[in-house]
């Protein structure tokens, strides 16, 4: 049962959901494609996010629990619901060691994704939550792109240039210029995030 909206992005709506069969109590986050956004390109990107999440099993990455299609045909997937604060808010006023510890959890999650040939491409505070126990959870691989070693020309770590969804304040120079991205793209965004966590300001 959908309980309440949690947020909305460029192509999807995110809802808080609860089990309705009475078997046990449980909450999850459901991401549903927005109405009218059923072009083949958008459906392909949505399917890519499902595939990306399905192969990521890491303590600091929100888990994919299920996927399917709504009665109106729109695709959706069910993810672990994370209750927490964006990492910049969670770090505000905390000791330096605590802030660095949270950042290292995020860096470990990103490194794991890179080992699985995935670039997140949208690392920003709202996509990195910190729960009450101080655990970091990386969200939203909606614009992640699989790194296929058979593509990308001479550089096997680069993806092809195409659509350019990004968050300007955290995007790497190659994203802004519309050039192919690689794992270096996420490293740049991690550097911006670290600067924010340490200083409270964007570089």
List the helices and strands in order.
EEEHEEEHHEEEEHH
Hey, roughly how much beta strand do the residues contain? Answer: 15-25%
Lateral arrangement of strands in the main beta sheet: 1-2-3-5-4
- Count every beta strand, where a strand is a DSSP E run of 2 or more residues: 10
What class do helices, strands and sheet pairing give?
A: alpha+beta
- Largest sheet: number of strands, sense, barrel closure: 5 strands, antiparallel
What's the shape?
Answer: globular
Count of DSSP helices? 5
Q: Percent range for helical residues? A: 25-40%
Roughly how many Å is the radius of gyration? 17 Å
Q: Mean pLDDT, rounded to whole units? A: 81
Low-confidence stretches: 148-162
Oligomer: single chain
Whole-Å distance between the termini? 42 Å
Q: How would you describe this protein?
A:
The chain is an alpha+beta fold and 203 residues long. 31% of the residues lie in helices and 22% in strands. It is built from 5 helices and 10 strands, in the order E-E-E-H-E-E-E-H-H-E-E-E-E-H-H. Strand 2 and strand 3 form a beta hairpin. Helix 3 runs antiparallel to helix 5 (183-199). Residues 148-162 have low confidence and may be disordered.
List the helices and strands and how they pair.
Elements: E1 2-8, E2 12-18, E3 27-33, H1 40-54, E4 64-69, E5 75-80, E6 85-86, H2 87-91, H3 96-115, E7 118-119, E8 128-130, E9 136-138, E10 145-146, H4 173-177, H5 183-199
Antiparallel strand pairs: 1-2, 2-3, 3-5, 4-5, 6-8, 7-10, 8-9
């Amino acid at each position: 049962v959908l309980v309440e909206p949690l947020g909305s992005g460029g192509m999807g709506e995110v809802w808080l959901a609860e089990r309705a069969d009475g078997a046990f109590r449980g909450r999850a986050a459901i991401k549903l494609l927005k109405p009218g956004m059923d072009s083949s390109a958008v459906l392909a990107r949505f399917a890519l996010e499902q595939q990306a999440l399905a192969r990521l099993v890491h303590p600091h990455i929100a888990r994919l629990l299920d996927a399917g299609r709504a009665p109106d045909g729109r695709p959706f997937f069910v993810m672990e619901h994370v209750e927490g604060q964006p990492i910049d808010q969670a770090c505000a006023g905390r000791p330096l060691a605590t802030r660095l510890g949270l950042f290292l959890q995020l860096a470990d999650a990103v490194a794991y994704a890179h080992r699985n040939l995935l670039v997140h491409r949208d690392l920003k505070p709202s996509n990195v939550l910190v729960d009450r126990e101080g655990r970091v959870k990386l969200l939203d691989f909606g614009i992640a792109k699989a790194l296929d070693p058979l593509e990308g020309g001479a550089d096997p770590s680069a993806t092809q240039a195409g659509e350019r969804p990004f968050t300007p304040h955290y995007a790497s120079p190659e994203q802004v210029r519309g050039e192919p991205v690689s794992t270096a793209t996420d490293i740049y965004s991690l550097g911006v995030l670290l600067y924010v966590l340490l200083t409270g300001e964007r570089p």
